[in-house]
Write a structure and sequence with these properties.
The chain has 11 helices and 23 strands. It is of the alpha+beta class and 382 residues long. It starts with a helix and ends with a strand. The structure holds adenosine-5'-diphosphate (ADP) and magnesium ion.
């Protein structure tokens, strides 16, 4: 009998990572009333762990014993999934950790990722976790000089949408509506974001390999030398993206939805291995706000001509600072790296406007290199 029992499949072991504060506080209730009862019926083994502080999920994923779990299931919003991705990919054994399937059961106020993957309903998401079917997931790798690398599974953004996303945090109690409110406020008080954006054509994608440089054994960064401020222009085949020379919106999206109710386009797949960049220099209020009012949920947002799009294999962003504000004739964009001493003080330059938004997390607006790691992780799908 003992030998026969060994032939039986071992029940899969899931670890539920529940953020009791996620969204409007629904995660705990969803877990108790939907997820755990369904999982008990399924006969698989699971453990539940509450996050106890901000970024706790990074630590959980960083330390989890890969011999003891078969999948990590996030019960929260995009923020905690982002933390789990980063916890896994910054492990010394990331090569193995990146193959651990991750799933999301939406219980946050920002559920763009679950909506994109098709697990918007907690029931469907729980069934997906129980069934265990996985798909490949592309990951963006974001590098800045002298800072730990950040990984993203959803979006990177700079400009109006980024500021609205980050500022919306204070309207958390509104649920997904918080993004609309913050967006309108930001469109009224529109800022310009000067800088240069260079893109690498997709066909020049390079193979991912392991490297022991800089941050230990991390997924390699192919164009790390471009992070040096001394590199003024990246060499061909990098090309400069047109600008005014400012942008009002830059958005790099890995899937169809930028928010639970912001259906961008169904031409983007989370596993197509391509980076798509949407950008705009539009400054007229109605031109910006109208597409979001009319087409926010129907996938036609990009058809109104508000944003241009481009496919790329890599992106280098060199944020600038606007020319001397006291000189009305100066529209020159300065590279902050080249501005020194007195001049910097006079212009009061610390950073370019706004923040870089990575899946809802903030990065400073400094020179940034983004590369794609195609099909790098495994995500549970319905
Ligand atoms: P939402 O979609 O509502 O924003 P997220 O999944 O994005 O939900 O989580 C929001 C934030 O909550 C994350 O930045 C996470 O680090 C933080 N967090 C998780 N657990 C706790 C906790 N116990 N106390 C405070 N913050 C937490
Ligand atoms: Mg969030």
């Amino acid at each position: 009998l003992a030998r026969e029992l060994q032939v039986l499949p071992k029940p899969r072991r899931l670890l539920l990572i529940v953020n009791p504060n996620g969204g409007v506080g629904l995660a705990k209730k969803t877990s108790d009333t939907v997820i755990k009862p369904m999982m008990r019926l399924s006969g698989l083994t699971f453990k539940e762990q509450y996050t106890e502080y901000g970024k706790h999920a990074v630590d959980i994923a960083h330390k989890v014993d890969l011999d003891q779990v078969d999948a990590l299931i996030v019960v929260s919003g995009d923020g905690v999934l982002h933390e789990v991705v980063n916890g896994l990919l910054t492990r010394p054994d990331w090569e193995r950790a990146r193959r651990l399937p991750v799933g999301i059961i939406p219980a946050g106020s920002g559920n763009a990722f679950a909506t994109s993957v098709g697990t918007k309903s907690p029931y469907v998401a729980t069934l997906a976790a129980i069934r265990g079917t996985t798909a490949k997931l592309d990951i963006f790798s974001l590098s800045q000089l002298d800072r730990p690398r950040i990984y993203s599974m959803l979006l990177f953004s700079w400009g109006m949408m980024a500021d609205a996303d980050i500022e919306s945090d204070k309207y958390r109690w509104l649920g997904p509506l918080r993004f609309d409110i913050a967006g309108v406020i930001r469109a009224i008080r529109l800022r310009r974001y000067p800088g240069k954006v260079y893109v690498l054509p997709p066909k020049h994608k390079r193979e991912i390999s392991s490297s022991s440089s800089e941050h230990g054994h991390a997924p390699v960064i192919s164009y790390g030398d471009l992070l040096q401020p001394s590199v003024q222009e990246p060499p061909k085949p990098w090309r400069l993206l047109p600008s005014m020379p400012y942008y009002t919106m830059l958005l790099l999206l890995n899937c169809s939805h930028a928010g639970e109710k912001i259906f961008f386009t169904n031409t983007i797949r989370f596993n197509d291995g391509i980076m798509r960049l949407w950008y705009s220099c539009e400054t007229r209020f109605w031109k910006i706000i109208l597409p979001f009012m009319v087409d926010q949920t129907n996938g036609k947002l990009i058809h109104r001509g508000l944003m241009q799009d481009t496919e790329c294999g890599g992106i280098l962003i060199v944020p600038g600072v606007e020319g001397d504000p006291e000189d009305p004739n100066s529209h020159e964009i300065k590279d902050p790296d080249s501005v020194t001493g007195q001049e910097a003080k006079r212009l009061d330059i610390h950073q370019a406007p706004g923040v870089f938004d990575v899946d809802g997390e903030v990065m400073p607006t400094a020179r940034l290199l983004i590369e794609i790691l195609p099909s790098f992780m495994e995500i549970l799908v319905p």
